[in-house]
């Protein structure tokens, strides 16, 4: 695979074209906005927490394929998870897209759609696009 | 560079080489430049060999000259030569080396002034660039002149350097901030602008050329309108995109202030200037205070130095002024009419090449009426994704709001992709971007 093919994998493009959990979350208990002033990408992440678990999560926003697909994949990954589990997911995702913790042998299957973002590490200018929705979720949950 | 894949051959009108205005021989472009001027956009007007970065990267397609221009070797050489042969703090020492540094600095000002049609070179103030120059006018002129209830007018296509600076200056003075709206093809709506002008209008600030879409604004017509309907207004022209791409003659523009950036002209970063009418500059209070800008410092008050030093507080960036002068000499030797003709033929070719790809929209007026800017969108692909794919084809473009969020709102987009042209751009660059955008359309088309 070329770098470009590994960046724009079918999974990622599919989430970009048909975003999951996109829309306004009625009765959200927390929400936050994320923005990338450089390119105008923006995202709003809204969650309903039950105890320390995410009972529902949705996002709205607009931007490049990486930022919007990342938000879509993230909402699927964190739905039903506890805050500690989400922090662990974020850490894995962060390592993956920054290249500090590349995809290990056989790990792709376990990571699911998250693995499609491994190609971002070859494009330093796009890391922010990939992490924006995660930072925004963490902001909504009071972690940043 | 392959010439077989060229998609169109566009003749550049055979404009003759202009007088070099006494440019030092070392600042002249290599002889090929002058020949190329009369030939076609197939070749670079300014040979790649003159630009060390481009020469070292023969496959690179640098299409971001509206953001900043690559540097000709003569500019880098001039800066190095200044540091190596004539370097000391100008205006300070009573020794010969400092005098030599001062002389070079003064010569640089004279060269830049001549390049931009300024007869009274003391009315050219060196600044860090356009942003700094506009802030100088807004702060110094604004502080002395703007009052509550006054009106300040900008346009919907302004760069943040102009838009935000006047927005804040107006708000701090209690003045009204007015925005002249745009036509559908991204020109200033002159009827709307006229309706905003009156006796309370104190400043009208607008770009000579829009950096985001390339619209060349009708300065003479706007000046006539402002003088007639708003006699108390000063006119501030943002020349960041005109100084590098058009023959600029401050004297005949008819504006009160003109701001420009050296780095967009092939000069060094951190160089640029403000040109103003002498009477206005003399009546304005200083911008910053410190060394060089004083005449006499009493315990209880200070008097100011003469122009231009009154507005150049602190040790000047003389080395970059010398570099900027070398850039002006380089452009003069090519001839600004040739630069414009070359860039115009390329912007037409590039606009046609991109518009022929299904899903591509090009923003702004017809290509013949734009400077060398092609701002475009590809359906289904975000500009940021486009820029990444183009980068993979060694095509450098800008994706984003181009420091023009008010304009993006008016276009109804969050960002555009922007390719922009310089004297070193060729039809081979046009071919490369067309192929790269077509490849992006294959990724995002489905
Ligand atoms: C039209 C316009 N105005 C102002 C600026 C600001 O110039 P600088 O960043 O060099 O101060 C730019 C460049 O980005 C520009 O294109």
Can you offer a commentary on this structure?
- The complex is a heterodimer of chains A (144) and B (446).
- In chain A, strand 2 and strand 3 (53-62) form a beta hairpin.
- The model of chain A has no long low-confidence stretch (mean pLDDT 94).
- Chain A has one domain (3-140): Sufe protein. Chain: A (Alpha-Beta Complex), CATH 3.90.1010.10.
- By secondary structure, chain A is an alpha+beta fold.
- The N and C termini of chain A lie far apart (36 Å).
- Chain A has a 3-stranded antiparallel β-sheet with strand order 1-2-3.
- Chain A has helices at 3-7, 10-17, 65-78, 83-98, 107-111, 127-140, and strands at residues 30-36, 41-50, 53-62.
- Chain B has 15 helices and 15 strands.
- In chain B, strands 2-8-7-6-5-3-4 form a 7-stranded mixed β-sheet, sandwiched between helices. In chain B, strands 11-12-15-14 form a 4-stranded antiparallel β-sheet. Chain B has a two-stranded parallel ribbon with strand order 1-13.
- The radius of gyration of chain B is 22 Å and the shape is globular.
- The two termini of chain B are 32 Å apart.
- Classes of the chains: A alpha+beta (144), B alpha/beta (446).
- Chain A binds chain B through residues 2-4, 7-8, 13, 17, 38-42, 62-66, 123, 125-126, 129, and chain B through 380-385, 388-389, 392, 399-401, 405, 408, 414-415, 443-444.
- Bound molecules: pyridoxal-5'-phosphate.
- Pyridoxal-5'-phosphate is lined by residues 129-131, 159, 161, 207, 211, 238, 240-241, 261, 263, 403 of chain B.
- Residues 129-131, 159, 161, 207, 211, 238, 240-241, 261, 263, 403 of chain B line the site of pyridoxal-5'-phosphate.
């Amino acid at each position: 695979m070329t770098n470009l093919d590994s960046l724009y994998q079918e999974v990622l493009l599919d989430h970009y074209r048909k975003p999951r959990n996109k829309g306004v979350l009625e009765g959200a208990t927390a929400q936050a906005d994320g923005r990338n002033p450089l390119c105008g990408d923006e995202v709003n992440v809204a969650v309903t927490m039950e105890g320390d678990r995410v009972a529902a999560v949705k996002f709205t926003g607009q931007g490049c394929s990486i930022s919007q697909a990342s938000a879509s994949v993230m909402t699927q990954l964190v739905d039903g998870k506890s805050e500690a589990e989400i922090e662990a997911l974020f850490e894995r995702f962060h390592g993956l897209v920054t290249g500090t913790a590349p995809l290990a042998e056989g790990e792709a299957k376990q990571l699911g759609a998250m693995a499609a973002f491994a190609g971002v590490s070859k494009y330093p200018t796009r890391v922010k696009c990939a992490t924006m929705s995660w930072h925004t979720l963490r902001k909504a949950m009071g972690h940043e | 560079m392959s010439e077989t894949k060229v998609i169109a051959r566009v003749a550049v009108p055979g404009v003759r080489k202009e007088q070099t205005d006494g440019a030092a021989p070392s600042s002249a472009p290599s002889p090929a430049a002058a020949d190329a001027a009369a030939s076609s956009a197939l070749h670079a007007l300014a040979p790649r060999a003159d630009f060390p970065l481009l020469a070292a990267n023969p496959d690179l397609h640098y299409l971001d000259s509206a953001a900043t221009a690559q540097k000709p070797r003569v500019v880098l050489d001039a800066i190095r030569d200044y540091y190596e042969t004539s370097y000391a703090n100008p205006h300070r020492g009573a020794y010969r080396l400092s005098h030599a540094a001062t002389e070079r600095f003064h010569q640089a000002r004279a060269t830049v002034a001549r390049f931009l049609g300024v007869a009274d070179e003391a009315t050219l103030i060196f600044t860090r660039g356009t942003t700094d120059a506009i802030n100088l006018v807004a702060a110094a002129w604004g502080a002395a002149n703007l009052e509550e209830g006054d009106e300040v007018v900008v346009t919907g296509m302004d760069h943040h350097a102009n838009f935000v600076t006047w927005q804040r200056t107006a708000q701090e003075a209690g003045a009204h901030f007015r925005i002249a709206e745009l036509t559908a093809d991204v020109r200033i709506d002159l009827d709307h602008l006229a309706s905003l002008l009156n006796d309370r209008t104190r400043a009208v600030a607008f770009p000579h050329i829009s950096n985001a879409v390339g619209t060349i604004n009708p300065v003479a017509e706007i000046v006539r309108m402002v003088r007639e309907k708003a006699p108390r207004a000063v006119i501030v022209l943002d020349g960041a995109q005109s100084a590098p791409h058009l023959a600029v003659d401050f004297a005949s523009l008819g504006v009160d202030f003109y701001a420009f950036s050296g780095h967009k002209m092939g000069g060094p970063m951190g160089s640029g200037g403000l040109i103003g009418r002498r009477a206005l500059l003399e009546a304005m209070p200083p911008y910053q205070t410190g060394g060089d800008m004083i005449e006499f410092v009493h315990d209880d008050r200070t008097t100011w130095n003469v122009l231009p030093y009154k507005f150049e507080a602190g040790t000047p960036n003389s080395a970059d002024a010398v570099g900027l002068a070398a850039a002006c000499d380089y452009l003069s030797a090519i001839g600004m009419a040739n630069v414009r003709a070359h860039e115009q033929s390329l912007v037409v070719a590039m606009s046609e090449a991109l518009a022929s790809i299904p899903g591509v929209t090009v923003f702004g007026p017809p290509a013949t009426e734009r400077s060398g800017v092609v701002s475009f969108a590809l359906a289904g692909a975000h500009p940021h994704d486009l820029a990444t794919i183009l980068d993979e084809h060694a095509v450098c473009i800008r994706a984003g709001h181009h420091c023009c969020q008010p304009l993006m709102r008016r276009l109804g987009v969050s960002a555009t992709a922007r390719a922009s042209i310089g004297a070193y751009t060729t039809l081979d660059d046009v071919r490369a971007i067309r192929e790269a955008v077509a490849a992006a359309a294959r990724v995002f088309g489905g």
